[in-house]
Amino acid sequence: MLADFKGMLEERKQLLKDMQELHSRSSFDSNAQEQWDRMDARYTELDALIASAQRAHTVESRAKQLSERMFESKPSASRAAVSAGSVDITSTPEYREMFVRACRSGSMAEIRGTINGNSNSTTNAPVPVDMQRRVLELASKTSYLRSLATVYSIASDQQVTIDTGAPQGYLVDESTTTTDSYAAPTNAVTESSFGFSRITVKDFAYACRVPVTKFALADYITGGDYMARRIAEGVFVEEENRLINGDGSTSATGNPAQPKGVVKYIKDVAAQGYTTTLGSTGDGWASLAPDDIIKAVHKILPRYRRNLTWFVCDDFASKVRTMKDSANRYLWQVSDNVTEGLTNGINGQLYGIPVVISEHMPTATAAGSVLGICGDFSKVEIYDRGPIEFKIDDSTGLQKLLTYMQAWKRSDVCVTNTAAFCWLKAL
Questions:
Q1: Which of 340, 412, 423, 419 is closest to 382 using CA atoms?
Q2: Model pTM?
């Protein structure tokens, strides 16, 4: 029975990794959704089987030793087995129950004692594996950039290669003026190097701290999932903002260091920018013409145009949605009866390219500002340094009967090939 139990735990752990890998793919089509649904159904089935096996184990254990409780302050035999590395403790039902109890009581003593045998330590509390799955689902809905980018997990700072130029190929003449079998080329291949650079991927921390009354913890927040989701949402929203808009600045008093965000990576390549053409300098959105959208896309070489996405702010979408032709017809529409138009009859696309609207994309329209980005976002790489973590502070707000719950995660981002992007530049 123990072997079956461990087998189910390992299967659930592997299933979560497979779901993470599937979620990180740049293209999430109907086949991927069907695969996700099958894995999710199996995960739910395993949850039920593991819970049933654990109940049976609990009954048997209590029948033998009524005086003992599982996971008491002193390590029991079963806890020692888990601590010895037989299974991942965060994937066990016992750990999940302890995490929920910590959320309710505001005390992490039980979790700390279980992880390292010292209830007075300052050990952080990893999110239980099944909660991590739900947090990942939340991230996929909250972070549009993460759903498009390529996501990696790393254990330390490391260097990655950035493309800055491709080598030039040449036609070689294989004709010969001799009559033997050796065909000597009449021209040599011109040497051509390619450019690249190396950057160090770092880790930047994004955190959220929430005060909760002990009454709310006891009366309303009964499952633990709710708190995990709400606090995780705050972390992921801030991460999305910085991964898009970070200016790459170093740490200064009162101002933490920021990652170099996607917008800055792309804006720094002036050659990939296309300046809007209507009106005059400083006209903002009024300077954006329909032709500008098409011409900007052609800043990208054809070999990079097979997986493009428009990544824009809501103001951009509103501006383009209200563009009209000389007959007062909207250009961006499902044009079943209109043969012309930016979408050619496809809703939600511009020039045949899907559109993603992000609340974090810049809205500034001053001269030189980024109005929108188009490109292959699989060339955006996000590097996660470990999972999201939680910590419960049950002492700071004790006088007011408050418990503080804090969560954080670390990550960085880079654009590995800026030639696969273009950006619309405000006139």
A1: 412
A2: 0.68
